[in-house]
């Protein structure tokens, strides 16, 4: 029996074009592609989810707390299960992916692309921030709008956070975490 997160009926609103590739993720044995991951040239689907979760300032326990599972599990077991998904040890089901999107934002298209790359498909690696894994369609949002690219793989929000506070330009406000703390 495969463990998966429970979803609500309105998740059926997800476009069918998105459901099909996501359903394919169900069938991906990510662990089987482990040897190629050792090169670490590409972000794995699990690592992508972990980076996005961390960028939202959430721990696995925070996400586990808001995630119901079928069958029902204690929260600390759900947290361990999430860690295994993020380590690409256990596959993520369609329902789990949809439920995770309720806890934090990530780009379904990117997840599908990364899953394809993990399956050795000749897919162009998506453009991601190397720190927070934000992307064009899933940018960091702050009071002053979305982040932008500073380097090929570094967004303005993460760039600003690396600088000493006094030297940070106005884009520091782009980072949700930074602006929320200041506010
Ligand atoms: Zn970033
Ligand atoms: Zn960003």
Question: How many strand elements?
Answer: 6
Q: Give the number of helices.
A: 9
Order of helices and strands: EHHHHEHHHEEEEHH
End-to-end separation: 46 Å
Evaluate the radius of gyration: 17 Å
The stretches of 5 or more residues where confidence is low (pLDDT under 50) are 32-40, 171-183
**On the 0-100 scale, what is the average pLDDT?**
79
Bound molecules: zinc ion
Strands in their spatial order, largest beta sheet:
1-2
* Main beta sheet: 2 strands, antiparallel
Helix content: 40-55%
Secondary structure class reads mainly alpha
Assembly classification = single chain
Strand composition percent:
5-15%
Principal-axis shape:
globular
User: How many discrete domains?
Assistant: 2
Protein architecture, described:
This protein has helices at residues 16-26, 34-37, 45-55, 60-65, 75-86, 94-103, 108-118, 156-162, 176-182, and strands spanning 4-5, 69-70, 141-142, 145-146, 149-151, 154-155. A two-stranded antiparallel sheet has the order 1-2. The chain folds into two domains: 4-118, no CATH class; 141-182, no CATH class. It has nine helices and six strands, in the order βααααβαααββββαα. By secondary structure, the chain is mainly α. One zinc ion binds at residues 129, 132, 134, 139-140, 147, 155, 157.
How do you describe this structure in short?
The protein is mostly helical. The protein has helices at residues 16-26, 34-37, 45-55, 60-65, 75-86, 94-103, 108-118, 156-162, 176-182, and strands at 4-5, 69-70, 141-142, 145-146, 149-151, 154-155.
């Amino acid at each position: 029996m495969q463990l998966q997160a429970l979803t609500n009926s309105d998740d059926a609103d997800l476009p069918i074009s998105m459901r099909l590739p996501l359903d394919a993720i169900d069938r991906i044995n990510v662990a089987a592609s482990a040897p190629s991951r050792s090169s670490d040239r590409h972000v794995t689907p699990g690592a992508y989810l972990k980076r996005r979760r961390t960028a939202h300032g959430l721990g696995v326990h925070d996400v586990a707390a808001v995630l119901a599972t079928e069958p029902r599990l204690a929260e600390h077991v759900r947290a361990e299960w999430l860690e295994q998904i993020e380590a690409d040890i256990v596959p993520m089901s369609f329902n789990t992916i949809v439920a995770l999107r309720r806890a934090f934002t990530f780009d379904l298209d990117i997840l599908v692309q990364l899953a394809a790359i993990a399956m050795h498909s000749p897919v162009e690696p998506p453009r991601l921030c190397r720190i927070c894994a934000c992307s064009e369609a899933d940018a960091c949002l702050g009071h002053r709008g979305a982040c932008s690219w500073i380097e090929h793989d570094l967004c303005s929000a993460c760039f600003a956070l690396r600088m000493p506070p006094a030297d940070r330009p106005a884009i520091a406000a782009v980072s949700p975490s930074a602006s929320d703390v200041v506010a």
